[in-house]
Amino acid sequence: MTDALLQISALEKRYPTKWGGPVLALCGIDLTLRRGDFLALRGPSGCGKTTLLHCVGALLRPDGGKVLIDGIDPYALGSSARSAFRAAKVGFVFQNFHLVPYLSVLDNVMLCALAGGPRSHLETQARDLLEKFRLSHRLRHRPSELSVGEQQRVALVRAVAGGAKLILADEPTGNLDAENGGILLDQLAAFAADGGAVLMVTHDPAASDRAGHRRNMQDGRLTAATNDSDAN
Amino acid sequence: MTLRKLVTLELAYRKLNFLLAVAAIAAAAATFLLTGALLKSNDLGTEAMVTAKVEETGREMDRLEDEMRKSMKGLGFNIYVFPEGQDLGEVHDQGYASKTMPEEYVDRLANSKVVTINHLLPALTRKLLWPESKRTIILIGIRGEVPLAHRNPMEPLIDPVKRGSIVLGSELHQSLGFKEGDKLSLMGREFTVSKCHPERGSKDDITAWINLAEVQEMLDQRGLINQIQALECNCTTVDRLAEIRKDLLAILPGVEIIEVGSQALARAEARMQAGVTAARQLASIKAHRTQLRAKLESLAELVLPLVALMGVAAVGVLTLLNVRERTPEIGLFLAIGVQSRTLLAAFLLKAVATGLAGVLLGVPAAALVLTALRGTLFHNHGISQLVTPSQVAAIVILLPVFAAMAAWLPSFWASRREPAEILRHD
To answer: What pLDDT sits at residue A54?
Structure first.
């Protein structure tokens, strides 16, 4: 029994192009995240960070290599089972938050019910989480009535409300000021400290510095870790 | 969070898209009902016009028949039966026969099976001097119409004059100052004036009618008459006189039979012509209305599919726009694990809700138009006459189904999109 939550080995992804050969977005990525890990991936635009997140998040089938989340290969599952697996195991946080504009804060958090997540006690659980993230006074508010920091916190609550233990964050602080970015990074770190794992891609050196582990990415490859302590 | 709640909140949020789709469906629903109502109204209008024309024709034909019966009595599409050996020249000269025949002849005719005669009026007529008034009058003794034994009873053409009563022509009562209820004396007998005829411009104006039996007593000609007026109704027969002579002479051998005048025949033919004209008018009305219905049907065949197509296209296009507008939302839903079928169900549920809302708006709209144009387009027919519950039920069921069908393609496309593709470009 291993406590590795995410294991990636020899991961490859190519994008076909109309002119010329395919673009190699990921070249033999190997990576392991254990419970408690908070890893920041840095790299220039187009280096394959988002592609890696999508492959890890069971959204984009890789062309080679393997992804195991909690010991299960999501790409060995059928489409429907993979969606259910994603709902249960992975939470996403996006740079643009992706909150549904016509739903209240509480309803946005409870969207996981549509994905077949547990319905009993979901509202109670959602309220508790929102209180923990200091959003209990915003339950009935729509996203447009929140500050950007609050919006990103709601997105984070939505990511964990379904019970996911692995959070994949794509430039989560990209639209936040330093103060709100700091709050969000604290909460991601707290999530990891509670037994989850966070894989964050970012341009922001300050955000990267808040993570427990850091790696760089260049041309689809993981390069020498910056202050690499634990990540593979 | 439920699918229904998600759809409801999204409908409320994107009101314009929803209202446009509802308006398209409502227009289709209202057009369907109004077109049906227009056709129904035309049918009811045709039915009413035909019924009215048939009734009017019936009334006109009855009036003409009544007029003809009366004219036949006075003008002569009548058969006169005179006693055997009567000089018909004398009849034409003095207006009545000098010879007599047994009154029993009329009973014999009445009890026969003869079918060419409808009414029998026996009479004893004489021109004589009214001694008490020193006036020449025509005295006619009548007993009214003798019913034909083999026919159903009909309203008599002429009522009998009661014993002791007298009916006076206009010249007589006006010049002598008699009015109804007055007493007068004729050849030593007392009579009460029972009726005073208005001026007819004929010998009727100097005629007095009394009971046949009394005339027979006064003239000492008991049981005798000098004419039988026989009114023949089968006026379309070309050689009617030969036919009637054949019938009557078989029963009353030797009697003289003449037909008087042709005006009644003209009227009978006019009546027939009126019938033919009415039938032609009726056929023309029916043809015109059938033509009108065919035009309306052609219009409906063009308009209904067009409106349905426009409604369906509108829902399809609006769904496509909605799907495009919600692309990031769709990417999110798929990324967090919402199943494609759930997403498809959300879009189709929205389309069905739109269809139902459209019907709920379209039916009252059609009712309003029907009420507003009731007096002009819909010939004052009520809604319940023009729209059936089955039509309403049909659109309540069919339009949401059509809306869902229209929304199917963009919804299916949305539900099958790759979330990574959406998120990568967002």
So the answer is: 93
